[in-house]
Design a protein that fits this description.
single chain
Amino acid sequence: MSAPSTAAGMLPALAPAPERGRRNVLLVGTLFAVAAGTTLFGGLLASYFSAREVARAAGEAWVPQDVVLPNVPLFVGYLTLLMSSVTAQWSVSAINGRDRRAAYVALGLTLVLGLAFVNALSFSWSQLGMVAEASRFATTVYAVTVTHLLVVIAAHVALVVVGFRALGGQFSPDNREMVVSAVTFWHFSVAVGLVVWYSIWFLVGGP
């Protein structure tokens, strides 16, 4: 009776199960950044509308008479930004389908469309010909649109990092958190752009 018990006591203990790494940490951080950005732009737009009401209550023209809004370049620019959201999501679908070539194309197109928006916005600023502190309209418009431009640039940086890592074959359907996070932030920059276009450009000068 003692032999079996002795043999059982000599069996090696099973190794402990490996600890699972924390998942979606980057995505959660991105969502917190999106929440903070939403609050930021909410405050900026509230300041814009507040300044507009103050100007109207004082009997002042909200848009200076010598300022002509470049509605066509603005519309094309923000439409281009909206299109980039489609190609950004395409990159996630390509990673899910293990199609690296499609992922490269999708990321490249997204960056190009984003740069086209930056160019359109810069051109629109030059057409406005406004100095930032020349009027309440100029000050608040530049405060909102420059901040949005910085968010778009940050989204570009995130996608460039994703692109370099994609070239190294570091992403797969099981390892795509960085791609999803970068694309989520890109969608946020697009959504903010649409709100800015409607709130500032469309309501003031029409499509």
